[in-house]
């Protein structure tokens, strides 16, 4: 699905959609009897008494209510974890980078293809995040998933991802993202075959658009470009498994029908997608390299204001025009921790190789990092004409909390143990006899 006519637009809007005429009740949410013999069910994503601007809820009109399933039983997973981790004693101040995860040779669906790389905060305490990668080659057949621990932000890197959800289907290809809020059931399919990507599991406040402040009314991600699905339902009486992530663990319940049986819905709590190419980049037109927050697409706020639980930041194609300026990312140490992924192309801070599409890196709180030696030399001597930075799309999950890598990540053969060497060739240039830069 790539045709916008199959979607409704506008971030956080109150939407109404029906797959059958008259399936949506008029004038009230719970009439004594719903048309077509449907059941009314409310899904809330916030406290009932949350202020109106932050109150999240959707009414679902479905063939069977969600309560119809057998008891849940624990389900083990080899590489999916939730914070706080108990398998790695301490987070590390070292710079970490990984090669792209390999596509499995055996049939593997989205759930089995999930691997947790890092995380912080606490899923039980509703703060922090989990960072996962996925590699899969099989659709979820008669398996469905929901996450009670947090909302899920999907970043496909190779191959399209189709999410069949309770509210309808979303399709996201590399260069697009999809978000499934906490508790909404879905199945993941891969229409292009073997696929790979990243997932940010947000335990905290739901993602929202960042305030624009002095930027004004326009810029960054525009609300109209966020797309929501039209209602669609599955009326099947086939045994299936409903898998839930709850309290940091997976649980499995047997069902005798598809849980994606919603014929109509209305509300403001629903999955959505966004095309990163529509991001309106704001950048310097004079001098200096701006902080990465200027590229924030979505933010999960926390207290105190201005220190995000998560910022989702992208580094898309853009003009570079700053004069007398070192244009790539400078050497830096942050209080915010940074997990980066590469969707396609080359990242302008790491042109010396090693940061490949599908790969990722982690630079924790106050861990020094920056351009590799090759980039530093090139950018320090570049002819600073206006340049359009093309063939690149990277992203960052940035968080106020330190990120703790998992045992899987630290023992992975994709961990680049020589990553630190990309800075080893930086020369000592200091000369007290030369006041002026060469």
| Helix fraction by DSSP (H/I, runs of at least 4) | under 10%
* Fourth CATH level, the homologous superfamily of the largest domain: Jelly Rolls
Strand/helix succession: EEEEEEEEEEEEEEEEEEEEEEEEEHEEEH
Number of separate domains: 2
Structure description:
The chain folds into two domains: 70-258 and 270-276, Jelly Rolls, CATH 2.60.120; 279-423, Jelly Rolls (Sandwich). It is mostly beta strands and 438 residues long. The chain has helices spanning 373-380, 407-411; strands at 7-9, 15-18, 39-44, 57-62, 73-75, 96-98, 114-122, 127-136, 143-147, 151-158, 161-165, 168-172, 176-180, 186-189, 195-202, 226-229, 240-246, 249-255, 262-267, 272-275, 296-300, 310-315, 318-320, 337-345, 360-363, 387-389, 392-399, 404-405. The chain is built from two helices and 28 strands.
Short description:
This protein has 438 residues and is mainly beta. 3% of the residues lie in helices and 35% in strands. It contains two helices and 28 strands.
Output the keywords.
Jelly Rolls, mainly beta, 2 helices, 28 strands, 438 residues, 3% helix, 2 domains, 9-stranded antiparallel β-sheet, 35% strand, globular
Helices, strands, pairings?
Layout: E1 7-9, E2 15-18, E3 39-44, E4 57-62, E5 73-75, E6 96-98, E7 114-122, E8 127-136, E9 143-147, E10 151-158, E11 161-165, E12 168-172, E13 176-180, E14 186-189, E15 195-202, E16 226-229, E17 240-246, E18 249-255, E19 262-267, E20 272-275, E21 296-300, E22 310-315, E23 318-320, E24 337-345, E25 360-363, H1 373-380, E26 387-389, E27 392-399, E28 404-405, H2 407-411
Parallel strand pairs: 9-17
Antiparallel strand pairs: 1-16, 2-19, 3-4, 4-19, 5-18, 6-25, 7-8, 7-28, 8-15, 10-13, 10-15, 11-12, 11-14, 13-20, 16-20, 17-18, 21-22, 22-27, 23-26, 24-25, 24-27
């Amino acid at each position: 699905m790539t045709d916008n006519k199959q979607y409704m637009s506008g971030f956080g809007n109150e939407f109404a959609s029906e797959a059958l005429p008259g399936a949506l009740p008029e004038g009230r949410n719970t009439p004594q009897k719903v048309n077509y013999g449907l059941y009314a069910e409310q899904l809330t994503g916030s406290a009932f008494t949350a202020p109106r601007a932050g109150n999240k809820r959707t009414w679902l009109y479905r063939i069977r209510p969600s309560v119809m399933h057998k008891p849940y039983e624990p389900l083990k997973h080899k590489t999916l974890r939730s914070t706080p981790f108990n398998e790695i004693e301490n987070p590390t101040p070292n710079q970490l980078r990984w090669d792209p995860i390999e596509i499995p040779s055996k049939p593997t669906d989205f759930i089995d293809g999930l691997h947790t790389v890092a995380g912080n905060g606490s899923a039980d305490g509703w703060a922090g995040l989990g960072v996962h990668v996925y590699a899969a080659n099989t659709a979820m057949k008669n398996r469905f998933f929901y996450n009670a621990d947090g909302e899920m932000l999907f970043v496909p890197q190779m191959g399209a991802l189709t999410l069949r959800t309770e509210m309808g289907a979303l399709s996201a290809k590399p260069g697009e993202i999809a978000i499934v809020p906490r508790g909404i059931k879905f199945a993941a399919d891969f229409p292009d075959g073997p696929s790979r990507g990243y997932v940010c599991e947000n335990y905290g406040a739901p993602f929202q658009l960042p305030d624009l402040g002095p930027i004004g009314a326009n810029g960054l991600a525009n609300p109209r470009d966020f797309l929501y699905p039209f209602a669609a339902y599955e009326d099947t009486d086939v045994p299936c498994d409903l898998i839930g992530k709850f309290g940091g663990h997976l649980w499995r319940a047997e069902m005798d029908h598809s849980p994606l049986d919603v014929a109509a819905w209305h509300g403001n709590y629903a999955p959505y997608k966004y095309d990163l190419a529509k991001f309106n980049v704001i950048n310097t037109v004079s001098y200096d390299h701006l902080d990465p927050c200027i590229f924030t697409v979505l933010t999960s706020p926390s207290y105190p204001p201005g220190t995000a639980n998560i910022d989702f930041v992208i580094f898309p194609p853009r003009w570079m025009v700053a004069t007398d300026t070192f244009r790539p990312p400078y050497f830096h140490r942050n209080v915010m921790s940074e997990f980066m992924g590469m969707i396609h192309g080359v990242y302008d801070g790491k042109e010396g190789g090693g940061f490949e599409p599908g790969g990722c890196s982690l630079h924790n709180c106050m861990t020094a990092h920056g351009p590799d030696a090759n980039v530093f030399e090139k950018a320090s001597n570049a002819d600073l004409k206006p340049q359009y930075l093309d063939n690149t799309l990277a992203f960052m999950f940035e968080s106020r909390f330190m990120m703790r890598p998992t045992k899987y990540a630290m023992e992975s053969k994709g961990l680049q143990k020589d990553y630190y060497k990309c800075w080893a060739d930086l020369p000592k240039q200091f000369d007290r006899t030369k006041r002026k830069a060469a």
